[in-house]
Amino acid sequence: xxxxxxxxxxxxxxxxxxxxxxxxxxxxxxxxxxxxxxxxxxxxxxxxxxxxxxxxxxxxxxxxxxxxxxxxxxxxxxxxxxxxxxxxxxxxxxxxxxxxxxxxxxxxxxxxxxxxxxxxxxxxxxxxxxxxxxxxxxxxxxxxxxxxxxxxxxxxxxxxxxxxxxxxxxxxxxxxxxxxxxxxxxxxxxxxxxxxxxxxxxxxxxxxxxxxxxxxxxxxxxxxxxxxxxxxxxxxxxxxxxxxxxxxxxxxxxxxxxxxxxxxxxxxxxxxxxxxxxxxxxxxxxxxxxxxxxxxxxxxxxxxxxxxxxxxxxxxxxxxxxxxxxxxxxxxxxxxxxxxxxxxxxxxxxxx
Length: 352
What we know:
The protein has about 350 residues and is of the alpha+beta class. It has helices spanning about 5-25, 30-50, 75-80, 85, 125-130, 145-150, 155, 185-190, 225, 270-280, 315-320, 330-335, 340-350, and strands at about 95-100, 115, 120, 165, 175-180, 205-210, 245-255, 260-265, 285-290, 295, 310.
């Protein structure tokens, strides 16, 4: 019973505070709105702190209300051009037939110099001679027109990568030299054991050698020359025994002490023809390469030393047994080797 007065007192105070709050609300009707806005502001601030910031360009403040118009300038067209128009033309196998003069070296550097009394003369390289465009002959007989317009080596040949000789010729040797941008073709012609080679590519030379030689079976003058028919030893350092030549003929005797022979070989060892005749106690006074495979100097249509032209894809296929290909696909066309990484891994797995 003693607690009843205390309860009545609490109810009286609550009624008094409620009436005061109602009266204050009538005088300030925005009181609840301010209370709500305060809580809304706090919640918005909390949301913005958790939301990642988005950078906006102040120059494009109205970009949300405007549609972006496509640009019509040249840069936009170039960036959005079709792939077929923007991609450069793929490089393909190119083979150059070149008539090499004497004293022109088969090297990318002209540091190979010869001494002349006290002065040193730098020799011209086959690459410099070809890229100068001086000896270029066009199969369409419009060579002069092309040279007058300043057509470059790259525009004529389509070669963008490095040019390589298919078998070197020393400085003193003249005649046919093939050059290409396809490393696989170099291996195909110069390596007789290449897996891609169905038939060995034969190289034919005319050589003026020392001494009077014949090929008659019963002739005394034929003993030395006939040794070559069985293969000769040119020294371990240079490859040892050579294969028998594909062909050997005696063409002429310009003098009682010299013989002009024609020899065809399927190998490509360093200075092989010169070393073969040296092995029979003779020597080469003049050497001229006239043919590689079925490609010969007559295909230059009478062009002299220093002249060159690009072979057609049919000439490359028929003359060298090599199909012109896209060089960016060359790695995919290479046959897998026995010792390559993939096969080695497979062998290791099989052992396990």
